[in-house]
Specification:
single chain, alpha+beta, two-stranded antiparallel sheet, Ald_DH_N, EC 1.2.1.3, aldehyde dehydrogenase (NAD+) activity, Aldehyde_DH_dom, aldehyde dehydrogenase (NAD(+))
Protein backbone atom coordinates (compact mmCIF):
# COMPACT_ATOMS: atom_id res chain seq x y z
CA UNK A 1 0.00 0.00 0.00
CA UNK A 2 1.08 3.54 -0.64
CA UNK A 3 0.38 6.51 1.62
CA UNK A 4 -1.08 9.32 -0.46
CA UNK A 5 -1.69 12.93 0.58
CA UNK A 6 -5.27 14.02 -0.04
CA UNK A 7 -5.47 17.68 0.93
CA UNK A 8 -9.26 17.73 0.59
CA UNK A 9 -9.68 15.23 3.46
CA UNK A 10 -9.59 16.26 7.11
CA UNK A 11 -6.73 13.91 8.04
CA UNK A 12 -4.95 14.41 4.71
CA UNK A 13 -3.69 10.82 4.47
CA UNK A 14 -5.01 7.80 2.63
CA UNK A 15 -3.64 4.26 2.29
CA UNK A 16 -4.01 3.26 -1.36
CA UNK A 17 -3.84 -0.45 -2.22
CA UNK A 18 -1.34 -0.82 -5.06
CA UNK A 19 -1.72 -4.49 -5.94
CA UNK A 20 -4.21 -6.36 -8.11
CA UNK A 21 -7.48 -7.35 -6.43
CA UNK A 22 -8.17 -10.95 -7.51
CA UNK A 23 -10.11 -13.64 -5.68
CA UNK A 24 -10.97 -11.29 -2.81
CA UNK A 25 -7.37 -10.38 -1.99
CA UNK A 26 -4.69 -7.95 -3.08
CA UNK A 27 -1.91 -9.83 -4.88
CA UNK A 28 1.26 -8.99 -6.72
CA UNK A 29 1.03 -9.51 -10.46
CA UNK A 30 2.39 -12.73 -11.97
CA UNK A 31 5.22 -10.82 -13.71
CA UNK A 32 5.60 -8.38 -10.78
CA UNK A 33 5.37 -5.44 -13.19
CA UNK A 34 4.16 -2.02 -12.13
CA UNK A 35 3.53 1.42 -13.56
CA UNK A 36 3.70 4.91 -12.13
CA UNK A 37 0.55 6.91 -11.49
CA UNK A 38 1.23 10.56 -12.30
CA UNK A 39 -0.64 13.55 -10.89
CA UNK A 40 -1.68 15.37 -14.08
CA UNK A 41 -1.71 18.75 -12.30
CA UNK A 42 1.85 18.56 -10.94
CA UNK A 43 3.32 15.77 -13.09
CA UNK A 44 4.72 14.20 -9.89
CA UNK A 45 4.50 10.48 -9.19
CA UNK A 46 1.60 9.66 -6.87
CA UNK A 47 2.51 5.98 -6.45
CA UNK A 48 3.44 2.84 -8.37
CA UNK A 49 0.78 0.19 -8.83
CA UNK A 50 0.77 -3.38 -10.07
CA UNK A 51 0.37 -3.72 -13.80
CA UNK A 52 -1.97 -6.46 -14.95
CA UNK A 53 -0.59 -8.63 -17.72
CA UNK A 54 -2.35 -11.22 -19.84
CA UNK A 55 -1.28 -13.86 -17.30
CA UNK A 56 -2.99 -11.87 -14.52
CA UNK A 57 -6.15 -11.65 -16.60
CA UNK A 58 -6.06 -15.44 -16.94
CA UNK A 59 -5.73 -15.78 -13.14
CA UNK A 60 -8.63 -13.36 -12.60
CA UNK A 61 -10.85 -15.14 -15.13
CA UNK A 62 -10.12 -18.51 -13.52
CA UNK A 63 -10.98 -17.07 -10.08
CA UNK A 64 -14.20 -15.58 -11.45
CA UNK A 65 -15.21 -18.89 -13.05
CA UNK A 66 -14.52 -20.72 -9.81
CA UNK A 67 -16.61 -18.19 -7.85
CA UNK A 68 -19.42 -18.42 -10.39
CA UNK A 69 -19.51 -22.21 -10.15
CA UNK A 70 -19.24 -22.13 -6.35
CA UNK A 71 -21.15 -20.30 -3.64
CA UNK A 72 -21.92 -17.21 -5.74
CA UNK A 73 -24.16 -19.30 -8.00
CA UNK A 74 -26.40 -20.01 -4.99
CA UNK A 75 -26.84 -16.34 -4.09
CA UNK A 76 -30.38 -15.29 -4.94
CA UNK A 77 -31.03 -12.34 -7.26
CA UNK A 78 -32.65 -10.53 -4.32
CA UNK A 79 -29.50 -10.98 -2.20
CA UNK A 80 -27.32 -9.78 -5.09
CA UNK A 81 -29.46 -6.66 -5.33
CA UNK A 82 -29.01 -6.05 -1.60
CA UNK A 83 -25.24 -6.34 -2.03
CA UNK A 84 -25.34 -3.68 -4.76
CA UNK A 85 -27.38 -1.44 -2.46
CA UNK A 86 -24.83 -1.97 0.31
CA UNK A 87 -22.01 -1.05 -2.07
CA UNK A 88 -23.85 2.11 -3.13
CA UNK A 89 -24.36 3.05 0.54
CA UNK A 90 -20.66 2.52 1.29
CA UNK A 91 -19.70 4.65 -1.71
CA UNK A 92 -22.11 7.38 -0.65
CA UNK A 93 -20.76 7.34 2.92
CA UNK A 94 -17.22 7.70 1.54
CA UNK A 95 -18.07 10.09 -1.29
CA UNK A 96 -15.56 12.78 -0.25
CA UNK A 97 -12.68 10.31 -0.07
CA UNK A 98 -13.55 8.60 -3.35
CA UNK A 99 -13.91 11.99 -5.06
CA UNK A 100 -10.55 13.15 -3.67
CA UNK A 101 -8.86 10.01 -5.03
CA UNK A 102 -10.56 10.43 -8.41
CA UNK A 103 -9.61 14.10 -8.54
CA UNK A 104 -5.98 13.38 -7.72
CA UNK A 105 -5.80 10.50 -10.19
CA UNK A 106 -7.08 12.37 -13.23
CA UNK A 107 -6.75 16.08 -12.40
CA UNK A 108 -10.49 16.64 -12.43
CA UNK A 109 -12.00 19.37 -10.24
CA UNK A 110 -13.18 17.97 -6.91
CA UNK A 111 -16.74 19.19 -7.57
CA UNK A 112 -16.84 17.23 -10.85
CA UNK A 113 -15.34 14.16 -9.18
CA UNK A 114 -18.06 14.31 -6.49
CA UNK A 115 -20.64 14.40 -9.28
CA UNK A 116 -19.06 11.33 -10.88
CA UNK A 117 -19.10 9.36 -7.62
CA UNK A 118 -22.71 10.41 -6.96
CA UNK A 119 -23.63 9.25 -10.47
CA UNK A 120 -22.00 5.87 -9.78
CA UNK A 121 -23.99 5.56 -6.55
CA UNK A 122 -27.18 6.23 -8.52
CA UNK A 123 -26.17 3.72 -11.21
CA UNK A 124 -25.56 0.98 -8.63
CA UNK A 125 -28.91 1.67 -7.00
CA UNK A 126 -30.65 1.53 -10.36
CA UNK A 127 -29.11 -1.82 -11.28
CA UNK A 128 -29.71 -3.22 -7.80
CA UNK A 129 -33.43 -2.87 -8.47
CA UNK A 130 -33.09 -4.95 -11.65
CA UNK A 131 -31.15 -7.84 -10.14
CA UNK A 132 -34.26 -9.83 -9.24
CA UNK A 133 -36.20 -8.99 -12.39
CA UNK A 134 -33.95 -10.31 -15.13
CA UNK A 135 -33.72 -14.07 -14.80
CA UNK A 136 -33.07 -15.16 -18.36
CA UNK A 137 -36.61 -16.44 -18.83
CA UNK A 138 -39.01 -15.37 -21.52
CA UNK A 139 -42.64 -16.07 -22.22
CA UNK A 140 -43.47 -16.63 -25.86
CA UNK A 141 -46.57 -14.65 -26.66
CA UNK A 142 -48.23 -13.33 -29.73
CA UNK A 143 -50.43 -10.32 -29.37
CA UNK A 144 -52.75 -9.05 -32.06
CA UNK A 145 -54.72 -5.85 -31.65
CA UNK A 146 -57.50 -4.59 -33.90
Amino acid sequence: MATIELKTLSNGKYQQPTRLFINNEFIEGVDKKSFKVINPATEKVICSVAKATEKDVDVAVAAARKAFKGEWRKVTPEARGKLLVKLSELMEANLDQLAAIESLDNGKAISMAKGDVAAMVSCLRYYSSWSDKIEGKTIDTFTYTL
